[in-house]
Amino acid sequence: MAVPADSVPIATMVHMVTIKLSSTNFLLWKSQVFPMLTAFDLLGYVNGTISAPSPTITTDSVERPNPAYTAWQTTDQKILGVLFSTLTEESMVEVVGCTTSRAAWLALENTFAPASSSRANHLRDELMSLRRGSMTVADYGRKFQNLCNNLAEIGRPVDESDKSNWFLRGLGPQFTHFADNRMSRDPIPSLRDLVNQAQQYDLFIRTMEGTPPPSAAFYAHDRHPSRSGQQSRQRGTSAGRGYRDASSGHQPSTHPGGRARSSSGSNPSRRPYTPRCQICQGQHYADKCPQYLQACGTVPSQPSAQLAEAFQASCNLSEPVSDWYVDTGASAHMTSHTSALDQFEPYSGNAPGDKSSTSSRQV
């Protein structure tokens, strides 16, 4: 049954459709137009269930205009005007020459419906095959959401569970553990939550990759240990004999008087050595010791000066020593200058001694 023309609120209907039809949004446009026409009982004009009555009628053998046709035509033209007001210039070209709302609707449907279906399939395939690749998680999430929005605009919205599954699948192998954990939850988090959580997980992974392993930091700190303990032990050992290091094969040179000197070079940055007297433990050399001078006289003799010089050289105070030497354990030594000793006794053994050579050595 035709609707009276005066009951069609054209001004209200025009503002109820907020989308202009284009070649990409027919399904979305249709989803707004159909409910509006149904609400005012006008959908029959568009889908053909309310057909046009005969333009004329015959009464008493006289043909006259049909009032029902006139009412139908008025209402149909109002609907046609509403449809035209929702079209873009691109879509208006398709309805040129259409005189009824039914004809206009068929023209629009035949033109844009197949394109919308094809576009929907294309967008859905693109969404399912989308991969993050070299994109950041934020960029990947935005592109994924835009495809979902495009599908919703043409009337093919994606199910929320499909959104979450496809998004997790496209994150890549680096997010395998993250994806397995989220997919095992019931229900699966929404797409918006997954994007935020994936960004946090990506930041955590990049932070861990930028941190050096603890073993490397320990090695860099421990590769130059202090030599103070080693040097103090070297000064405490006997330097009276040359010793070949079994591990390195290094043979230190032996100087007259049994003094061994390392072949390593001097270290100019080493701080000066503070001498310590072997007699009174004072901070001076043995030849300057008051007790020694008192026992030997006010002026040290030449052998005493040689003894102090030999002691200073044997300590190797200015050069770092990298080799270790065993203590010979000797408790007796030979010398031709008894005046330099506090206690001595003549040698009564049978081993030969070369006095001529020992007299010229520094002890």
UniProtKB/TrEMBL annotation:
Annotated Polar residues bias: 227-237
Ranges annotated as biased composition (Low complexity): 256-272
Disordered: annotated segments: 212-274, 342-363
PANTHER family (UniProt xref): PTHR47481, ZINC FINGER, CCHC-TYPE-RELATED
The protein's name: Retrotransposon Copia-like N-terminal domain-containing protein
Originating species: Cuscuta epithymum
Taxonomic path: Eukaryota, Viridiplantae, Streptophyta, Embryophyta, Tracheophyta
